[in-house]
Amino acid sequence: MGYMPFIQFPFIAVPKDLLPIVGKPTPGTRAYRREGTFKECGEWFETLAEYYKGDVGLSSGGVIMFVPVSRAGVHKRIKEGKLTAFFFYVTHEETRPFGAKRMAKERPFILVSVSECKAWAEDMKRKVGFVDNPDETPFLESTRLLREGGGDEPTSAKEEKEADEFVNQDPKDKGSRKVKYRDYGGNKENLQQDWIYMAKELQAAMTSPEKAAAFRRRLRKGVEWDKGNKTWKLKEEK
Questions:
Q1: Within its chain, how far is the Cα of 85 from the centroid?
Q2: Looking at residue 208, what DSSP letter applies?
Q3: Quick check: 113 and 56 in contact, CB under 8 A?
Q4: pLDDT value at position 211?
């Protein structure tokens, strides 16, 4: 009987001199977490893009371009330490009743490696016996297995929830009253609005002081529903 040879997964290297930029990984994983301002987030993104020459820059939602898995499947693999991921949580200080201060954290920006995703796809093909020739009998069955994630998808609602929580909230903050995360209840409209705010703040942080001030004036006005384009947008200045 034949056997599948052991193939070491080609993780990207994360040297010690990069840790001040990406932060330390959550123990037992390759999830490197960092927090700070939007300006620091822009610097984090540019440093990763330059250091890895474009290989790191894929979002967790964009993994599907290379691997047939859901976002939850990506989160599960990160939680299991099988995929390198870089997180950046934008933070703000907020005042609670009676003047107490606490740190508020946004939903994280997440970047993963294209080369690791390609290697993941190849590993998945080997596991399900994927056949490239469509005339072969096993082709349809192996394609179905690939579409189902080849065993990399969460197998229960509990497992999916735990993987999402691992990604959205840094485990080191669990139980801390000094940190407040935004609601991760899955409200699609709130998620779209959050990303508009985050994208515009990041854009403001990387532009001139005059343009940054204009962006932030619009952010304070809030967002509105664009019926024509069926999406949220910043309110226009009047």
A1: 8
A2: -
A3: yes
A4: 63
Size (the chain), residues: 238
Contact 166, 27 (CB under 8 A): no
Mean pLDDT by 10 residues, the chain (238 residues): 59 96 96 91 91 90 85 93 94 64 80 94 76 50 52 85 91 82 50 50 57 60 62 60
| Helix H or strand E segment including 124 | helix 114-128
Distance CA 63, CA 131 (A): 22
pTM of the model: 0.69
Q: 103: which strand partners?
A: 93, 179
Whole-angstrom Cα distance, residue 72 to residue 54?
A: 24
Q: Are 118 and 69 in contact (CB under 8 A)?
A: no
Q: What backbone torsions phi and psi does residue 221 show, to the nearest 5 degrees? A: -75, -20
The two tokens of residue 89 are 């949580």
Region for residue 222 given its phi and psi (left: phi exceeds 0; alpha: psi -120 to 50; beta: otherwise): left
DSSP lists the bridge partners of residue 31 as 85
Q: How do residues 27-36 score in pLDDT, each as one tens digit?
A: 999 999 999 8
